[in-house]
Write a structure and sequence with these properties.
Radius of gyration: 35 Å
Strand content: 15-25%
Helix content: 40-55%
CATH topology of one domain: Dihydrodipicolinate Reductase, domain 2
Structural class: alpha/beta
CATH superfamily of one domain: Dihydrodipicolinate Reductase, domain 2
Distance between the termini: 50 Å
Strand order of the largest sheet: 3-5-2-1-8-12-13-11
Shape: elongated
Oligomer: single chain
CATH class of one domain: Alpha Beta
Amino acid sequence: MSIQSDIAQIEEQEQEQVWSAMHNKLCKQAVQVHKFGGSSLASVECINRAVDIIQVNCKLDDVVVVSANGDTTDELLHIYELAVVQSDKLHHEISQVKDRQTKLISSLLKTVHAHSLIALLEHDIALLVKWLQVDINAHYSELLALGELWSARLLSAILNERVCPSNAIDARDFLVINNEEQCAVDYDLSQRQLALLREPSKLAVITGFVARNEQGLPCTLGRNGSDYSATILAALTAAQNVTLWTDVDGIYSADPRVVPNARKLHRVPRGVAKELGRLGNPVLHAKTLQPLNDCGSHLHVASSFDANTAGTEIGDFGQIAKQELSVTHLNDLLLAQSVSFLGDVGKQAAKEFSAIGVDVAKGQIVIQQSQQLAVSQWLASHDTEVRFTPVAIIAVVGHNVAQRGNVKVRFKRSLRAQQLIAILTSERQHSFIAVIPQPCTTELLNNVHHDVTKDARHIGLVIAGAGNIGQRFIELLPSQVAKVPALENLHLVGIASSKRILLNTDGLDVESSFEQFEQHSKSYQQDDLLNWLTHHPYDELVVVDITPSKAFSELYQPFFERGIHVIGANKWAASSSTANYNKLLQSAKEHDSLWLGNTTVGAGLPINFAIDDLIASGDEIEEISGIFSGTLSWLFENYDGQQPFDVLLKQALADGITEPDPRDDLSGLDVQRKLLILARLAGFELALEDIDCQNLVPASLQALSVEQFLDNAEQLNDYFEKQLAQAVQQKSCIRYVARFSNTKAGVKAKVSLETLPQTDAFASLTPCDNIFKIVSSWYQDNPLIIRGPGAGRDVTAGGLHSDLVNVCNQLAKKAHQVKLKGINE
């Protein structure tokens, strides 16, 4: 046996193991249908992306539905048109199509596999030429079906070569419809025939767009036929989900090609989706959604060009999804008016012609221009006349929107400068439809979209930290939402502690959220949280970190990579290593994420804001100093020598003024971190080790347990007695002070116990107060002083709310980036 044979055998065995593992692990899961549009299969690069998506998202029992590659269907249609007029360009165009398909095959498959596919292609081309010579009209549907057939064969061959066992199935061999006009599926017969064609442990790759009629003749499913094929397959296989992989990353509140500020709709209720499809949405079509009515499958729209970006899901959702609004339009319509359209006969006519809108009180229906002849013939049987008027429609669509009077008021106000023929309500109450006598312009569509959806941006809020401050933050939320317009569309969707989490996509009731957390929260790992945050259905997501956790702060990087905004009282990230801090800043910038941390220093005091504002205004910071610890402020304001320092310390511990381990305060590390954060905010590249830090805990007490430390805390007394006595002798006081300065000699930073004159700004504070002094180019002889409570439940929660309002105001002005490769295939 040759070396090549040995290698081939080993590769075959390894591939079999991969296939076996894939089958054993995944085939028990519910069936998924994945459909790839023509633009998603248009080139070698596109097809390779699709293969990667299949490898990550599919299992062997799934179904893949394909459109023709790129513009192949248009090219075949052009060949038909050239044949009808007997153009001398016909054979050249056929040769071009053959060459393009051959290049795709040769570029994507190994030579041995490519040969067999090219041979099949040449057979099809010969058959095509024969059809053109005999009776082209009799083979019209077969000609158009070639694109899907070639696409399915090629993708299946690639999967067999690279990923898993696969078989290509021609939908004409199982899918039966009544006719091309109605496209009603014979589900029982189609399901039985499909079952005979699917091969166990093979991924089925099925042609979209094509079928056979009841007479057994090949036919097509018409516009958006491949999407319709995908949802039909979902009904035939009882699929859990259908994903339409296309060239746009979801469904938008308007056509993003025309309305740049259109918002992605992450979740769309079924009824709303159907109405959007009926009224001109460029991605959805009503026919596509019909098969899902009974089978209950969820439909996803996602971009094959950016598979990691969450798309749009269509299904059954709660109130937040039902609040969404969209604006759509259709031009080139006709308003048909006749006495036969009054009352019940008008309802019958509307159903017969799938009317865009109907007013049976006025005898009016809105139809497609292509239906004019059919409507005239239908009315001839009623012996009545009809008047046709060219019109267009613009519609606002949303769940039960007809019952939302404020939306109708906004809609009518946005159209006040337009001549209106009528405003109609759809039968299912999911739309208001304005009929206008002229085409809907880009300007009108943008204006109406702005007026109707301007307050519809939804922001999800996740609170990490379920302690006192977290509870107070949530207690303040209802009144804040009522007072601050920027918070109008803010939704509390998650609460997390260090070990447990409660997430609800449709939002938590704020008033009872902590009771819900106590009753329904579950244990979690960080990956669980990241997975949910990756696929959240909101326009923006804000995480408020009220934890002291270093581990949680390490999630900031993946948060920013997902475009999530962070408000942090947590000091770990902002005081981490210079390399990590700079990486976080860069990541937040690259992914358009906001990172605010006003409460990392000074609780609710606006020290971060003041420094940021001075720097943004062109000022230059020269010095930052002050008393940054509320605990140390309380201790040294109250320490007068009348009682030993350890007694005062234990009193502060009992009153909750210190950390559970008072050494966390006495070490100075907290103050050191705060000074680092402010210096960095002022524009200086500093590391923690660049700040000298005096630890007030003697070495003999640093390694003990908390209990042992407290039992031996009297060892602190001699040092503080001496420091206080010296200060009193000088008519001064002792304070733990942070100082940063930038001079010609360089940068200096230190936190330590200092002796200060009684006249010093830092000498006389209300216990627990913080004080910050800033010297800058603008504040020289009279430095800027900010003073107030530096700790506390209310002020910290208030500071977090200040950051939240700031974030929401910035997000309201944020330019929306539409990820758009094109719309239709």
